[in-house]
Amino acid sequence: MKKLISAALASAMVLSLAACGSTGDSSSAASGTGDSTAATAEASAAGETTPIKLGGIGPVTGANAQYGTAVKNGEQLAVDEINAAAGYTVFELSFEDDESDSEKAVNAFNKLLDDGMQVLLGPVTSDPSISVAAECASENIFMLTPSASSQDVVDSGAGNAFQMCFTDPNQGKTAADYIAANSLGTAIGIIYDSSDAYSTGIYTAFQAEAEAKGLEIVQTSSFTADNNTDLSTQVSQCQQAGADLVFLPIYYQQASQVLIAANNIGYEPAFFGCDGMDGILSIDGFDTSLANDLMLLCPFSAYGEDETTKTFVAAYQAAYTETPNQFAADAYDCVYAVYQCLQDGVITPDMSAEDMCDALKTAFTSMTFSGTTGENQTWAADGTITKDPKVYQVQDGAYVLMSSKQ
Amino acid sequence: MQFLSYLISGISLGSVYALIALGYTMVYGIAKMLNFAHGDIIMIGSYVIFFAFGGFGWNPILSVVVSMVVCTILGTVIERVAYRPLREAPSLAVLITAIGVSYLLQQVAQLMWSPDPKSFQSIVAGAGLKPLELFGGKLTISAEAIVTIIACVVIMVALTAFVNHTVPGHAMLAVSEDRGAAQLMGVNVNATIALTFAIGSALAAVAGALLCSSYPTLSPTTGAMPGIKAFVAAVFGGIGSIPGAFLGGVLLGVIENLSKAYISTQLSDAIVFLVLIVVLVVKPTGLLGKKINVKV
């Protein structure tokens, strides 16, 4: 009996190996002849063209899966909308999982490249993006990340990597400027995640700018990814130091713990967060009244009143039965930014990935783009984006845009 | 006063570690294996309570009991399916299987309940208990901390009595001493190990309820880090020893919290592990571990 099973297993393995071999062959053959088939298809069907192959990378499983899933949904939604409006397949999206791991992200990148990807819209998190950006620089592929906000991402891409989101230092600086200009606090406490590039990047820039603007930082407390179960000590420290505004450059899961811990000890400072705070109102079971008066610097709000946002939120809710967060909005904008270049005639579907990269680089640095995450946005040559900061305040479970003195 | 408040929250965190460590240490003592899936059983138990109490609005005590039943069944099923066939296999194979089960539970939870975190409503507050205010309000002890500490002490005492004074308890001692000899004496080894898993998993449900009541973010990876810390606590106190798990857990929680408060919030883990290394250098079997002379 055992021999029979092992024989069956062995034959299954042989078969699967053979299957691997054959799929590998066919894909390499397809990428080899990609240019010629594109040309013939264009010639035969007038008005229609072969689709531009977009690649996406992000964590759809593992600890950061909520970000990757949002990006995947946002990109897919935009692709579906564009295809439906055009009446034929303009874009074709294939999305690969990286579990937020650098090595897996590079593997995913190579797989997408083998499958004929022309433009990369990803990865989602900073560390994988730094590794993939370096690959994009050496392979000359255009990379537009929806949400990897570290400065190192664009540096590593050497001109090939562009961001749809704020760069971390930019966000920290803007937050400090806003707090100083509107006199939101006199004694500032900070709680940040020292094991996370996003959080540390914002914190460093915030601290430098706060000193320059004469804001007094009375307490700086941190935690690490392995040590984020109990944040009550950090909250107590801020209370002891007498902070009347606590700056939270952290993600909303930990921020919700901070708010609960503060409520438990009756500590009521003003709280100010960054874009990672977005999502706090949609945590299952979280008492949103605790988040009342919370301020956050965020380019996108699902409660926004403008037409672009409303249309996007309605379409997203219809497709995925949940409210989109900023990651989904950034991803949605990424597809539309590339689509804008296609409409302007900067790129054509029959271009090779390398030619497309050169064309998009020039186009992005000279164009203006308006989407769900901001109006009239422009990119610098190094790939960082310029957009107006928007500060929202939570009131009765919704975001309200704050009047700015900036 | 502030020191007292840090100390109490440290003991409370340590009590949760201790409850989880009891599950590790019992299974190690009796089956001689490290059940790395233990932390994830806590996570599953917490989700059961989240839906029973937060979702359906059941009575908090009933929710915990339901969660204990679910975890007990889950624990025994895992033991039956994943560990029993490997009873005579090398210990490394069992270890890898345990890690595999741990990942399986996390991924299944992610598929079933999505990776988005959920905010856990405290079952202690849900049962109507209020924080205790001492010294005219200068020192506030949360109801969660009090319940956690009391529950941990009660469970530890009950477990010690069970092991020392009942027939199934004696069977557990016998199996942990010498599995082969116990079998020869007529002890049903498989049933005893299954019972150990059942008790450990039921304790995991209680630990999950208390963990998430104090630190209210619930996600599919919630159990992973406390699970590892509790494993450290079990080694710290002497793995295989029930009072050792309790002592190790509480000390770990107190050291972690005090070093967070007074030394550095970043270095607290490093300090905890430094203490562990020092203890293991001086006393390789842990604080209350038995010294076993191996005759050659």
Write the layout of secondary structure elements.
The complex is a heterodimer of chains A (406) and B (296).
Chain A: H1 2-44, E1 52-58, H2 65-86, E2 91-97, H3 102-114, E3 119-121, H4 126-139, E4 142-145, H5 151-157, E5 161-163, H6 168-181, E6 187-193, H7 197-212, E7 216-223, H8 232-240, E8 245-248, H9 252-264, E9 270-273, E10 295-297, H10 307-320, H11 326-343, H12 353-366, E11 369-371, E12 374-379, E13 385-386, E14 391-395, E15 398-401
Parallel strand pairs in A: 1-2, 1-3, 3-4, 4-5, 6-7, 6-8, 8-9, 9-10
Antiparallel strand pairs in A: 10-14, 11-12, 12-13, 14-15
Helix pairs in contact in A: 2-11, 3-4, 4-5, 6-7, 8-9
Chain B: H1 2-31, H2 38-55, H3 60-83, H4 91-113, E1 118-119, H5 123-126, E2 132-134, E3 139-141, H6 143-165, H7 167-177, H8 179-184, H9 189-214, E4 217-218, H10 224-237, H11 242-262, H12 268-282
Helix pairs in contact in B: 1-6, 1-9, 1-10, 1-11, 2-3, 2-4, 2-9, 2-10, 3-9, 6-7, 6-9, 7-9, 10-11, 11-12
